[in-house]
Amino acid sequence: MSSSENDEISSKRNNNSDLNRLEKQSVNSSDEIHKEIYKKLKWYENPVLQTSNSNQAKTTTYSSFYSSLYTGLLIVAFLPIILIAFVLFLLLWILPGLGWFYERYAEARDRKKYYPPIDEMKPWGPDNKLIHVVHLRAPESKLPPIVYVSGMGLSMYFVKPLLLKFVEYMDEPVEIISFDPPGYGASEPPNDWDTENAESQRLLLRQVIAKSTLRKPFILLGASAGGLLAHLYCLTYPEDVAGIILTDPTPSTIFEQGSPIGK
């Protein structure tokens, strides 16, 4: 190989090394420019990164404090709303459900405690409704039976013990019958209250007497509104009545005053 060729090859190598050096310098300068730009951008985006460690810690502490403060304020602001929603939930769902269960429990408890024996519930009411009939039988009695017609505010739950005491104090056995009209005491209510009047009560009294096969004539004992009904029955069926006793009876003029009982 000639010396001229060697010189040419050497010259090319030098040129290539110069180009490589220039490229590296260009890359290095470009990286430095990018780093400077990045630092400037980070400075504007987050100044905390360009501060000292103590200032950075203080700023972080303040940020945590304000975040906690904002969270607490939000909780305090929304707490009444949450409480109101909870109370409404209780009132609309939980409490009615508890009330329904307690009503079923109370009904079963009261039925067991206050409900009369099944043999005292007779289908003698209007539309074969069950009514509470207390019949103290005395087949060997020679006295006329007693039909006790109570007032509207007194049920057989209270009347029956009084009748038992009355029989106990009698020197001779006596037969007594009494009942609760429909809708009173343990008796089932009628289908239509508008049909309940003095006439319907008189017919019911006659039906109870007939169904119970009570001996006639009997003594009518009426108290309060029952006294009015006993008087009406005595006037309608005098042959069935041996005597009548009225205790504080409701006056018959109640019909003239437009009372609901006289409809």
Question: Could you characterize the architecture of this molecule?
Answer:
There is one protein chain. The chain has 263 residues and is an alpha/beta fold. It folds into two domains: 43 residues; 145 residues, Rossmann fold, CATH 3.40.50.1820. Helices cover 55% and strands 11% of the residues. The protein has a six-stranded mixed beta sheet, sandwiched between helices. Helix 4 crosses helix 5. It is rod-shaped, with a radius of gyration of 52 Å. It starts with a helix and ends in a 16-residue tail after the last strand.
Strand content: 5-15%
What series of H and E elements makes up the topology? HHEEEHEHEHE
Q: Work out the radius of gyration.
A: 52 Å
Question: Alpha-carbon distance between the termini?
Answer: 147 Å
* CATH domain class of the largest domain: Alpha Beta
The shape is rod-shaped
- Structural domains: how many: 2
**Coarse structural class:** alpha/beta
CATH topology of the largest domain: Rossmann fold
- In the CATH hierarchy, the architecture of the largest domain is 3-Layer(aba) Sandwich
Query: What's the name of the CATH homologous superfamily of the largest domain?
Result: Alpha/Beta hydrolase fold, catalytic domain
- Which segments are poorly predicted (pLDDT under 50) over 5 or more consecutive residues? 259-263
Number of strands: 6
Q: Determine the mean pLDDT.
A: 78
Strands ordered across the widest β-sheet: 1-2-4-3-5-6
